[in-house]
Amino acid sequence: MTTQDKTAPNESTLTRAANGIVIGMARHWLAIFNIVWAIYLFTPFLAPLFMQMGWTAPARVIYAIYSVLCHQLPDHSYFLFGPTPIPQEPALIAGGMPQVASLLVERSFIGSPAVGWKVALCQRDVAIYAGVLLAGLSYALVRRRVRPLPFKVFLLLVIPMAIDGLTQLVGWRESNWLLRTATGALFGVAAVYLAYPYVEDAMQEVLESELLRRAALQQQSHDGARAAP
Fold this sequence. Notes:
Elements: H1 3-53, H2 56-67, E1 77-80, H3 89-94, H4 103-107, E2 111-112, E3 116-122, H5 123-142, H6 151-169, H7 177-227
Antiparallel strand pairs: 1-3, 2-3
């Protein structure tokens, strides 16, 4: 038996396993997406919970990971286990936040027993990913009937967040948690109904192609078995 003959069964097994994974993902992509978004959304809330429990090491790991993905400014974030979930700057300073003109220093403040502990995602990001998750869950009910959101409509739904964020960034005005939540959630929902119908179509094409390929292979195997003496 040659080396190729010895490895062929293993290659066939790996191929079948890989094809099975492809089919599974094509069939259950929406559930996979929703689970991933749920984990991404709710993990930042574990950071203040861990701090309250005294588990500072895993809490700081979460803060560090999400700091790459979010600005985590304290006055733009929710706080848990304190007097209010939306403390303003004077309360944050009284609770230990450094009063300096450096956003890098300010964003490093994760809270204190007096003010509570910061969620590792800012208010707008919480709203965006909550909108993505809720829209993904609702999409499961209409996925066979809904078409992609027209891009012009998507842009209209994004404009409120762009205006709110940009005017705050340049110093014309200061936003608040309610506006950040409303505009962020609107963007998250719009993004799902723009993108998910295209993902659904692509996954259906992958699934149909793979099932047709399997059927052709089975037919070839059946024909070969009948032709064998």
